[in-house]
Hints:
The protein is an alpha+beta fold. The chain has helices spanning about 10-30, 60-70; strands at about 55, 80, 90-94. Strands 1-3-2 form a three-stranded antiparallel β-sheet, with no helix packed on it. The longest helix is centred in the N-terminal third of the chain and has 23 residues, at about 10-30.
Amino acid sequence: xxxxxxPSRTGRRIxxxxxxxxxxxxxxxxxxxxxxxxxIAFTVEPQPCFxxxxxxxxxxxxxxxxxxxxxxxxxxxxxLRGYKPVPLQGMLFA
Length: 94
C-alpha cells in the first residue's frame, strides 16, 4: 500500500479532492435551486437548546472553576438536581 505522502500518489490525491469538491458544489447549487433535497435534514432554530455540563466540584474549588470556564454574562453555576436523592454539595452545572 502506498503511503499518503508518497509522490506517486500525489496526482490521485489531487484528482480525488477535485472530484469530491466538484460533487459537493454541484449538490450545494442543486439544493439552493430547489432541485434536490438535502441528504442530512436540519433546521435553524432561533433559540438554541440548552447544553448542560455536569461536574463534581469540591466546595473549595467552585470559584476557581467558575473563573476557569469563563461563563458568559448572565450565566452562573447552579446546583444540579437529580431524580435520585443524592447530596447536592459540589455538583454544579452551568
